[in-house]
């Protein structure tokens, strides 16, 4: 993964601290009764958590970025290799389940906080509902991105998460620095000329493409880049479409998510591009004929601390394909 300007320096610092086995900041006590709202549910912490369990890799990587690796009692739902800067710290964290954690596994870890980017991981047949976990005295945090109010930009919702984690863990300064670094990256991206139309091809299941619709981080990236998300009129995050519909929208550039680590047929970027070339209606597209593809890590097409990396990759791709 390319090193990010400015942002990469901050992550490298967090990784260095993590590798030394020392907390990034003194473990200052959170104010007694610190309360915030997470996806409509009020949570209160009386002190910084010391045994947090993360329900997804993206939540783990955010806490690693904030330098609180020593507070993570367990992680789950590992999707792709972690960046090198985090590997030493990550390998010391118990993996409670490489896939989706169960309620029994979560409770056995004795956590004092559970953090997830997705509300869907808190169900009876998964980690348990938020209601039942809160009744047991376990507060839960769900990313603000997964419960938008319909007006907030996904990047701003990510920044809300960084700020919330800073408050919860008593590392407000580091959270503020992370927000500032990512705002600087977003502000430094040069807009594309001519508002190119982009299809964000995320996954392919049984030969059927799934693309970015309205409201997700690809829509936000498109706005930042001065581009048009070709399926922004579809009010779903990842709608199932047809190759004919992709051809009808005639994109200038196709962003292809690489999910090869997941190991399912059609997950790799190479397989998706091959399918575009082998499908007669798609093969005729100028973007396909002229190889106007931008390959990005598929995990970064979901909102996370890594998303600014894909923003930069696509910005470069749009510049290269405009030549």
UniProtKB/TrEMBL annotation:
Residues covered by the Fe/B12 periplasmic-binding domain: 51-323
Pfam families registered for this protein in UniProt: Peripla_BP_2
Residues making up the signal peptide according to the UniProt record: 1-24
Coiled coil: none
Gene3D superfamilies the record matches: Nitrogenase molybdenum iron protein domain (3.40.50.1980)
Classification via InterPro entries: ABC_Transporter_SBP, ABC_transptr_periplasmic_BD
Domain of life assignment: Bacteria
Keywords attached to this entry: Signal
Family in the record: Belongs to the bacterial solute-binding protein 8 family.
Record protein name field: ABC transporter substrate-binding protein
Biological source species: Nonomuraea longicatena
